[in-house]
Amino acid sequence: MTSSFNVHHASGYEQLMGRWSRRLAPLFIDFAGLADGEKVVDVGCGTGSLTFALAESADLAEIAAIDYSPVFVEAATLRNNDRRITIRQADACALPFEDGTFDRALALLVLHFVPEAGRAVAEMRRVVRPGGVVAAAVWDHFGGMPGMRMMVDTVAALSEGGRQLRERYCWQPMMQPGEMKRTFVAQGLTGVVETELVIRMDYQSFDDYWAPIAAGEGPLGKYVATLDPAERARVDAAVRDAYQAGRPDGPRSFANIAWACRGTVV
Amino acid sequence: MDINASKVDPKLLELLVCPLTKGRLSYDAEANELVSEKARLAYPIRDGVPIMLVSEARKIEG
């Protein structure tokens, strides 16, 4: 298995995460750097949050996007009307490109869903020319996502299955402080820098927060989809209570931290 | 209408190599596949999108 991400519908993903990864993309591009005329590969393009932001950020020669999920590849392809962008189905751990093809390889919110994330970093390094840049960002599920921790802590308090979900969620690959940096260094990248990128996720209401998860989207959605109706009703009520925090339903805003790492190919 | 052009945009075939061997691929327009002779694998093109996954490739016998 080369991706542990769970996606049913691209529209559900958009509401769960796509709208926030679009917000994160410009910060990540600033960190990764970009120059006119470059050839860039977007590893794990999803619905295209980074892909289309790249197209707007510089006069790039080529943007090659890949994703493991056929659902994402179809969604990104439907959105694409830019001749510089090509989208194929491929595995981050076995990229279908020659050595040194690109000036930059970027992966936004991908490596924490790749069980062998080190292999993906090695492949990103391989397809970038000497002097080019590899950069990636992943969420800090354990310590940097209070809006999602609120949900996993709530379900963990309710059942053993919830506790197991929390463990899986908190310890996905590349999420610990310094973990991605060590991986980049181990894969032979130089001048490796790790930083934190912060965005806020702003919800209009509990339903705005909960609907994509309730519909089974993403790792949390996959969990709630397994619950029997009584357990499901308890989870819905408890997460709603945590969201509202004693006040009437309405807008809530959560800070979210992503680890970002970049290194140069020797 | 060019029947091959209806199957895949030639630009989508550029840059690609076999993800297993990193060797060259040849496009079989008839079967609408990308063939890796070295790996003895044929990668399908579905709805105009190259599927560059070994798990989805057809093994070439013989």
UniProtKB/TrEMBL annotation, chain B:
Gene3D superfamilies: 2.20.25.10
CC annotations in GO: cytosol
Family matches, as SUPFAM superfamilies: Trm112p-like
Pfam family, one: Trm112p
Organism domain of life: Bacteria
Record-linked PANTHER family: PROTEIN PREY, MITOCHONDRIAL, ZGC:162634
Similarity field: Belongs to the UPF0434 family.
Protein name: UPF0434 protein A8M32_12545
Organism (species): Sinorhizobium alkalisoli
